[in-house]
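quick one, four chains, predict together pls
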Amino acid sequence: MLKNTQHSDCNECSSICAYFKNLKTDELAELNRNRFEVFYKAGETIIKQGSLSKYLVSFSSGYAKVFIEGPADKNLIISIVQPKQILGGPGIYTDSKHHYSVVALTDTKVCLIELDTFKDFVRRNPEFAEGLIADMNSKAIDIQTKFMSLTQKQMHGRIADGLLYLSEDVFKAMEFDMLINRQELAELTGMSKESACRILKDFKDSDVIDFQNSHMKILNMEALQKISRNG
Amino acid sequence: MLKNTQHSDCNECSSICAYFKNLKTDELAELNRNRFEVFYKAGETIIKQGSLSKYLVSFSSGYAKVFIEGPADKNLIISIVQPKQILGGPGIYTDSKHHYSVVALTDTKVCLIELDTFKDFVRRNPEFAEGLIADMNSKAIDIQTKFMSLTQKQMHGRIADGLLYLSEDVFKAMEFDMLINRQELAELTGMSKESACRILKDFKDSDVIDFQNSHMKILNMEALQKISRNG
DNA sequence: TTTCAGCATTGACAAATTTCGACTTTTTAT
DNA sequence: ATAAAAAGTCGAAATTTGTCAATGCTGAAA
């Protein structure tokens, strides 16, 4: 974890979450004074579940996994984050603790935003507050969708959902490097890593996908979507 | 569904969600003009998933189940609501649709709050907005907890969690009428109703609980909590 | 009161999923 | 480059969970 003293300006930042566009010039200046850039290497922990949240984390570059740590190393990956997303939300107005962990999947750059500054914006700037609420709204809907997938579908449907998530929401491509290993794919889809392996093989055998380790190619998107629908 | 023309005053309402205390006198008066009371009988649908959300629902008396409707009648009960809770949130700043259904478990009284009025408050009253955000925060944490329970624990742990939820969060008693039947208990804990039956029997046989149909008594809270912890 | 429909219960079986063990491949550290 | 560690793969066995079918129970309607 390296701190960078070479700050760019929030005004010109292209990797900030959409609703920050509602900040006025003076607020942006204030934001600029109360944030700092941090670089993480792949594998480093950006947010640790249970720790005090003093900052919100604005994701600038790279990828990271967001996951809930259960007892006995039973993790559940909630999402893969990418630039323009804000992390650290759920605890900020309740117990001021982080309710998930975030670990970098690639080398990563983030901006840590002072929580006091952020909360000031929420109080002073209604558009900003609305943006935050809208962001929380869509995160709530996302987690509901994931909740349904993991509790109501069988393994084939869940792996299909996982692959569609990576393809459509994260990497926006039919061919991509997953960045996560089999264990993590299992944690994303709520099964054992062996089961994840077997189902990937099934999909490969039926020419729905092709892969080499973590490099994944979707060959038959319709089939994958059908598997997802059928659960 | 009966509309009631005998409005009480929001000022004196004791069954409104805590963060509405942040509303000022004139705002409360405005709220009073832009809401109306509705009565539902047990079994009636208060909110239908997929419908347009024109109102927020403030729960005044009675109980209701909140659930996501999956394909093929596969429902997932997210929570049991009680007075002082606000419903209809997740879609209000995104697609203006309801993302879950709500059905009354008992005869029920709610206040429908005009969405435009509510959003006005959010814009004009920072404390109110903060209250809303805090409420969303705790709902997000709740659903995360439930998510972990349903995806990481086996059936005994999930039923224990379900019973603890009913006892500690909903009815706040060791003995209570569940209001939900076995099918619904199954939908709350993510299993088939037969499995739910069998596990209730296991718990009864080991003197952890006692029950007669929907009337439930927790005999050994420590044992139940241990089962919950052990998954 | 009687009847009936729906809910609850239970056992037997089938299906889904995990665990274990063995082995191979890939990555990492020296 | 080599060895060690980690990750991936896969079959078989064990476990968990769901489905089906039969039966009992309960409360509401006639």
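Chain B touches chain A at residues 68, 70-71, 74, 76, 78, 89-94, 99-100, 119, 122-124, 126, 129-130, 132-134, 136-141, 143-144, 146-148, 150-152, 190, 229, 231 (CB under 8 Å).
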